[in-house]
TrEMBL record:
Matching PANTHER family: MUR LIGASE FAMILY MEMBER, UDP-N-ACETYLMURAMOYL-L-ALANYL-D-GLUTAMATE--2,6-DIAMINOPIMELATE LIGASE MURE HOMOLOG, CHLOROPLASTIC
InterPro entries listed in its UniProt record: Mur_ligase_C, Mur_ligase_C_dom_sf
Descriptive protein name: Mur ligase C-terminal domain-containing protein
Span of domain Mur ligase C-terminal: 1-68
GO MF: acid-amino acid ligase activity
Domain of life: Eukaryota
Amino acid sequence: MGRIAQMYADKVIITDDNPRDEDPAKIRHDILLHCPDALEIGGRREAIEKGVDIAYNEGMILLVAGKGMRNFKL
């Protein structure tokens, strides 16, 4: 997942989604092994805010992914 994101995105932010009983820092670490240029921001709200800021300031499109059929989680 991280490798593909890094291949096709100008910027990548790795954040938490729904770790259930897994360690969210470990999940982020495992993704970052394949996406070393990504920003790591544990809090989803903070990650989205940072993504909006980057997209606005650099004239980019922001894709917020990971919730599937759920309506939201901030």
